[in-house]
Design a protein that fits this description.
This protein has 7 helices and 5 strands. By secondary structure, it is mainly α. The strands form 2 sheets. A 3-stranded mixed β-sheet has the order 2-5-4, with helices on one face. Strands 1-3 form a two-stranded antiparallel ribbon. It is rod-shaped.
Length: about 210
C-alpha cells in the first residue's frame, strides 16, 4: 500500500477526534464541519503540489467509515438519551388511582419531589377524571401512558435546539408538556389547586399526634 494513500493522523486519528466532538453538542457540529472542510482544502492543495490525487481513495473511505460509525453508534445508544432517562424517573403518589388534578399537582413545581418540570393544561371539567396507574410509584413513562389511555391527553417533552446533541439527544430543558387539545370551557388552574393541596397536606401533618 503506497504511503500517501492513507494517513494515520489525517485519515484515522482526526476522524475519531472530530467524530467524538461532533456527537457531544450542536455547537461542536458546526465547528467540526468548518475546521474539517478547511483542513481538507489545505490537504488537497498540498497533495496537488506533490502531483498526488487531491483526495486519496483509501484514506477518504477510512475517514468516512470511522466518522460515520461514531455518529451512528452515538445516535443508537439509547441509555445516554436525556428523554429516556427522564421517562424512567419515578413519582411518589398517595394511591395507584389518582385524579388528573392530583397528577398535575404531583408533577408541578409546588411538589418538592416532582420527577420532572411539568406543565399540565386541560379543562376544569376533566379534573376529576381518574387515572389508573400500575403502582403508587410509577415511572414518568407509565404515567403518561395511563393519562393518554384514561384521559386522552398526550404528553411530550419540549426542547431547545441549542442544547441538542447526537449522543444525549434533545435537552428537554423546557420540561414535560401535558396538553389537552381543543379545550372547551374553563381551563383547570393548577396553581390554585396546588395551594389548596398544600394547605390540605399541611393540615393533615399537623393533625397527626
Amino acid at each position: 500500500m503506497p504511503r500517501h494513500s492513507l494517513s494515520i493522523g489525517f485519515d484515522i486519528l482526526l476522524p475519531i477526534v472530530f467524530g467524538t466532538l461532533f456527537i457531544l453538542h450542536v455547537m461542536f457540529m458546526m465547528a467540526v464541519s468548518s475546521v474539517w472542510f478547511a483542513l481538507l482544502y489545505m490537504r488537497s492543495n498540498s497533495r496537488r503540489d506533490k502531483n498526488l490525487s487531491p483526495m486519496p481513495l483509501l484514506g477518504t473511505l477510512v475517514a468516512i467509515g470511522l466518522f460515520t460509525t461514531i455518529v451512528l453508534a452515538a445516535h443508537w445508544y439509547q441509555p445516554a438519551k436525556r428523554e429516556r432517562q427522564l421517562m424512567e424517573r419515578r413519582v411518589s403518589l398517595p394511591a395507584d388511582d389518582v385524579t388528573l388534578a392530583d397528577l398535575s399537582f404531583y408533577f408541578s413545581r409546588w411538589n418538592d419531589e416532582h420527577p420532572v418540570l411539568s406543565s399540565f393544561t386541560f379543562s376544569d371539567a376533566d379534573k376529576d377524571k381518574v387515572i389508573h396507574l400500575p403502582s403508587k410509584n410509577p415511572t414518568v413513562r407509565q404515567t403518561l401512558d395511563a393519562i393518554q389511555r384514561d384521559a386522552g391527553i398526550e404528553g411530550q417533552f419540549r426542547h431547545c435546539g441549542n442544547g441538542f446533541s447526537i449522543l444525549y439527544g434533545p435537552d428537554c430543558c423546557f420540561g414535560l408538556n401535558v396538553h389537552a387539545r381543543g379545550i372547551q370551557g374553563e381551563p383547570f388552574d393548577v396553581s390554585e389547586y396546588a395551594y389548596q393541596k398544600l394547605a390540605e397536606l399541611n393540615a393533615r401533618q399537623h393533625s397527626v399526634p
